[in-house]
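Thought: the user wants the 3D structure for the chain below. I'll pass the sequence to the structure tool as-is, report back what it returns, then summarize two notable features.
Action: structure_tool
Action Input:
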Amino acid sequence: MGWGISMALPQQKTREIVFQILYSQDVVKIEDEDIIPFIMSLLMVTKKSVLQALEKCHQIREKLTEIDALVQEVSTSYDFDRIPLIERNILRLAIHEILFEENVPGKVAIAEAIRLARKFSTPESATFINAVVDPIYQRHLLNKSASKEQALLT
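Observation:
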């Protein structure tokens, strides 16, 4: 890539950037304009890549109340405020992809959430992430199926 060609980042790398921005902004309350150069130098990515990740972060934050409520509903044995920030932000990313991003298959979102948990947290976290995200995915499938059936009947 030394020829000045700008290539799009793989989705896995983009997810990692999104997760790291969400987490960083939860920990330090850093503003977008301050996080851009930080992420660029830390992860050695282009400004364009960081801006794309920030856009996805904004989309996630717009749905935060809804996403967090689902996490609370599914993880009844955990107090939401006690879920570590790493896991909380991985959950937010995965659930957003499942519910609001038609171009991301639900199983891919789950697999990626588990991968992120293993990379940035612990194997136990990966199990927890799966235990929370999978029921939300299953419910989403049922809702989509019911909506399609309803549309066919009308």
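Final Answer: Structure generated. The two ends are 53 Å apart (CA to CA). Residues 11-153 form a domain with the N-utilizing Substance Protein B Homolog; Chain A fold (CATH 1.10.940.10).
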